[in-house]
Amino acid sequence: MLSVNDFFSGCGGLSQGFKEAGFKIQVAVDNQEAFLKTFSHNFKDSQTRNLDLGDSNILKDIPKSDIVVAGPPCQGFSLTGPRNIDDPRNKLYLSVFETLKLTNPKAFVVENVRGLKTMWEGNVFKEIIKKFESAGYIVTESLLNSADYGVPQIRHRVFIVGIKKEINKKFEFPKPEFDKDDYITCGEAIGNLPSLENGELKSNDYNEKPITNYQRYVMDSNKIYNHEATLHKQFVKDTIALVPEGGNYKDLPKGVGDSRKFNEAWTRYHSKKPSRTIDTGHRNHFHYKWNRVPTIRENARLQSFKDSFEFLGTKTSQNVQVGNAVPPLLAFKIAKELKKFL
User: Fold this and answer.
1) Other CB atoms closer than 10 Å to residue 218's CB: what's the count?
2) What's the CA gap between 57 and 60, in Å, rounded?
3) Of the listed 74, 240, 243, 300, which one is catalytic?
4) What is the CATH number of domain 3-178+326-339?
5) Which sequence spans correspond to the domains of the chain?
6) C-alpha to C-alpha distance for 155 and 164, rounded to whole angstroms
7) Is the dihedral of CA 217, 220, 226, 232 positive or negative?
8) Is 186 considered catalytic here?
9) Which of 3, 167, 218, 233 has the fewest CB atoms found within 10 Å of its own CB?
10) Three-state DSSP state, 134
């Protein structure tokens, strides 16, 4: 069984996809203890390390693996530009290159925000690809939309995959399986979860039957974790009620919701469409039917986490964990394809 080390692992979205594709998740590394607690809870046979990946000395203590997966932050590049990619402010991203040199895996998968491709007119991205190639890899990159692969969410992310030059194979990304006319919708994903509209705060026992194919995919437990409603004040509920399905702050009456006017503010999901990109907050989006923000479980389903995957920590931390994760279903599709090349 091919082994995987997950750097900047978060709660484990990439790892979950690789696990479901038949890989052994060996070690997860992050510097957020709350994220690693969630990871340990869901990956009982894997090690976790709370480490600062900006310190190259600690990399020597991490066991080698066949595959390295990572989602390193790229904010440093916005400051340094393409001319000095080795600037210390890029140390977290540079740690990925250092890891490849030290551990020499057969392949790697790196995920990042779509803006990485256009930063500094695309020159930063070109330099990153060159650096991966100089580390001894045949590199392929692509901008993927999760909805094209069965995730009920519009989420564009850059993926970079490298295979060792000695293997002499160039990775090909899986072809899209859906288009916008048949994307999996919010209603198909979360429509059978308890509404929590009758005053109850949470729901644990779960006897609902799946109605859609997507629900059959995610419903692997008779318990429902992290499905807890936010206690909104009545005036907040009244304001949410003014936003039509699929609408946002632009649909509110003049003078209402003026404190939050930005692209994602006061956005209500649409039952017949995928969700907007799940972010790390939880007060910008609303359920398509109920006058409240989505629960952690609802957003986790929209991210393609199965119901048995439980998130630990504070509610704020859980929202960050869900929002930062790579959708496991998309990770699975990439992992399954990668296995063919190794």
Assistant:
1) 24
2) 6
3) 74
4) 3.40.50.150
5) 3-178+326-339
6) 29
7) positive
8) no
9) 233
10) helix
